[in-house]
Amino acid sequence: MTTLRFPLSRIEGHARVEMEVQDGKVVSAQFQAIEMRGFHYFVQGTPAEQMPVIVPRICGVCSTAHHVASVKALEDLFEVKPPPLACEIRELLLLGQLIQNQATSLFIFTMPDRVGASSIFHMDETEANPEQQLSLAQRALKIRQIGTKLITLAGGQFIHPIKAVIGGVTSGIKREPAQEMLEEIKTVFPIVCTLFDEYWAMSLAMKERIGTWGDDQPAFYIASTRRSLPRFNSQDIRVMGPNGTERASFPPHLFRTYLDYTETEYSYAAQSSYQGGILRANSLARINLANSMGTPIADAYMDELSSTFGKPAHPILLFDLCRGIELVYAFERVIEMLDKDLDYEDTAVPYTPKDGEGYGLVEAPRGPLIHHYTVKDGLIENAEFIIPTTHNMLAIERALKVAGDRYVSPEGINLELEKAVGRVVRAFDPCIACATQ
Amino acid sequence: MATKPSLPRFAVLQLSGCAGCEVSLLNATEWVEKYKLVYMPLVVSTHSVPENTEILLVSGGVRNDEDAWNLRRAAKIVDRVVAVGTCAISGGVSNLGDRDDVRQMFLAQSNRHHLPHLLPKSHPIDAFVDVDLYLPGCPPTPELFMASLTGPEDYNASTIVCQECGRKKLKDMRPKHLLGFQQGEVLPDICLINQGYLCVGSSTRGGCRAICTRPGHPCVGCRGPSDAYIEKESQVWFDRVQKVFENMTDIPPEEINQALHSPQLSLFLFQFTDYMGGDRRPRSKEKVL
Fold it and tell me: What are A22's strand-pairing partners?
């Protein structure tokens, strides 16, 4: 038995892949999350009302999703309903996060794979035209920055936001800054479309070279966005079967009824499944579970995807293309939202703290995220973080096994395997800091 | 493009943290043309810090034995080590301050046999290697990142957060009790202490441009003490915060004291948790950006 160990890069957090090979066959593939900090433990005893400011530190990439999920869990617990304007501002916050995340995953994490470079910042080493490649990195960072600026505008702070509070948000968005942001977004949007077109073309070329879009079997899909105009400040979780029929729709407090959780000795992250079936969350799940994006350009891309690959679509490299569709959607949607009045009413309602149990759900870029708190004497007695990446753990391992079978034979191991491992993991865009907390 | 081969080379070693520091670095776009990024697992596929690297930025704390190994190996081969962010400087949120009870429970339940082993504490990196520059913040702003690369001596920062905040301090608005971190409507333009919030910006290091207090969130001290207090024990800093509240409010001193020392605050007053037990010496102010 030989153990192949693959370090991973261009993903969020610390993880590695181990494959056991015997007689030219892959016996097992493990995706190992190798870091842990322990948020679940050290928030115990914290005043419940401070959670929205502590939990963004779970992850600097997904901080906004944790911030909003935490506020929603406490609102559920204190039985308070935020005003509609506050919900819109939270949606903007989450769209900012989506832009930042999908741009990072597309252009910084996975674009180098398409041309065989080690990093977008080094793509000049492999391409003939350094001037153009430098501008590629600059354009990618510019698009990401829009996400950050939007988080700052709607959330107050640029990485660990602070403006969502129990009962609402601390303020609306005034006409002038909204207009400034709108102008900037409109100038960057064409760059998004061009860069995504380039990315799509690079993906086609890569498919020609490696001969596959990731030949894995169908799976269950899980998302909490709606069928059209996906809302990331979401309410219910939906599960779709491998053939495309919707199997379940449930509020966050019922997640244990529908999902199974297991811990393993080889990873600091848990794994979840749906009635014994392998689940997938993240962009491909949301696109499979949507009838339309509800904005014109994103819908055109989505139609192109569906007409080429059918619906539901299963090849794993489509996760990456779906991220691009969502990036386009987020820009279009933010342009619509910022054009409206975002300062028309009080943004928060009063609340009375009390003890009990609460659940908060948002659709994070990587899938449905649930915060579940039990509060006693005003302090957190127990906190559970149901992280989207755990929904993808088994799917990642199955896809790794498929990649292993493709490149390992009794004659030897094809060196393409290392690249394939990177492509597979990055397609799922796992977040290890979140998955292990 | 002729100058390109001579660009200074820098690496980012990511230990156990949240990647917020890395995200902040990606928000600073100016370095792309001025520096060559040779190692940063989040965005570059190389698996160790290469030789001939000049600057090593280290983010995250030393949480497990693999972190310690990677840190020692990398620090040996670079010219300059910069500790970036609260986790690298003090162990950060996951250092847990003085909460030993939680730490015991965590260790008993969490270790996995075949994975890097968790250490009892999340350690600051200067427990393992010499540090040339500290860049505090949770996370440091993109502007501060650029300053740490290009030369901290030219960075124009105020002494304390208050000076960058611009909220007015009022003489006749004296709250009787603390409001907690987030409660009620925050009045614009008026000092958060006047409004009853436990804001520690009055002695926290400036340079962040008051990104939290300006939109209305009290300063939680993530940049650490200002030069006036950074070389002293944490108690001196606590006393100073206490004094500010005595001068500006009618809040009973015990209430402030209790709030500053409550276990959960150790998650916020990030920099001071490792001074409290007296097991570490404060850093010299010349080395802190």
Answer: A25
Q: Which of B19, B26, B122 sits opposite A13 (nearest CB)?
A: B19
Half-sphere exposure (CA, 13 Å, Cβ side) for A82? 27
Mutation target for A interface from B40, B84, B264, B270: give the one with most A CBs within 10 A: B264
Chain A CB within 8 Å of residue B171 CB: no
Q: Which of B129, B154, B179 is the last residue before a domain boundary?
A: B154
Contact B17 A50 (CB under 8 A): no
Does B181 reach chain A within 8 Å, measured CB to CB? yes
Taking each helix axis from N to C end, the angle separating A416-428 and A318-338, rounded to the nearest 10 degrees, works out to 30
Quick one: pLDDT band at residue B111, thresholds 50, 70, 90?
confident
Residues of A in contact with B146 (CB under 8 A): none
Pick from A159, A162, A154: which is nearest to A232 by CA?
A154
Same domain, B201 and B148: no
Cβ contact, residue pair A37, B93, below 8 Å = yes
Q: Does the pLDDT value for residue B13 go beyond 50?
A: yes
Q: Which tens digits make up the pLDDT trace of A159-176?
A: 777 788 899 988 889 999
Domain identity same for B91 and B74: yes
Contact A47 B264 (CB under 8 A): yes
Which of A229-238, B28-37, B56-65, B262-271 is least confident?
B262-271
For chain A, which ranges sit under pLDDT 50? 125-126, 128
| Other Cβ atoms closer than 10 A to A238 | 21
Query: What's the ipTM?
Result: 0.88
Interior CA angle at A87 toward A86 and A90, to 5°? Answer: 85
Mean pLDDT, residues B256-265 taken together: 74
Using 50, 70 and 90 to split pLDDT, how confident is the model at B233?
confident
CB within 8 Å of chain A, chain B residues 257-286: 263-264, 267-268
Count structural domains, chain B: 2
Q: Smallest CA–CA separation between A114 and chain B, in Å?
A: 14
Q: Going from the N-terminus, what domains does chain A have, and what CATH number goes with each? A: 2-436 (1.10.645.10)
Q: Record the tokens describing residue B176, joined without a space.
A: 């009787």
What does the H/E/C string look like for chain B? CCCHHHCCEEEEEECECCCHHHHHHHHCCCHHHHCEEEECCCCCCCCCCCCCEEEEEEECEEEEHHHHHHHHHHHHCEEEEEEEHHHHHHCCHHHCCCCHHHHHHHHHHHCCCCCCCEEEEEECHHHCCCCCEEECCCCCCHHHHHHHHHCHHHCCCCCEHHHHHCCECCCCCCCCCCCCCCCCCCCCCECCCCCCCCCCCCCEECCCCCCCCCCCCCCCCCCCECHHHHCCCHHHHHHHHHHHHHHHCCCCHHHHHHHHHCHHHHHCCHHHHHHHCCCCCCCCHHHEC
Residue of B nearest to A419 (CA): B45
B20/chain A closest Cα distance in angstroms: 3
Q: Smallest Cβ distance to B21: which of A50, A60, A157?
A: A60
Q: Which domain holds residue B20?
A: 4-154
Flag if B181 and A171 touch (Cβ within 8 Å): no
Residue B183 contacts A where some CB pair is shorter than 8 Å: yes
CATH number of the domain where residue B108 is located: 3.40.50.700
A35/B116 Cβ within 8 A: yes
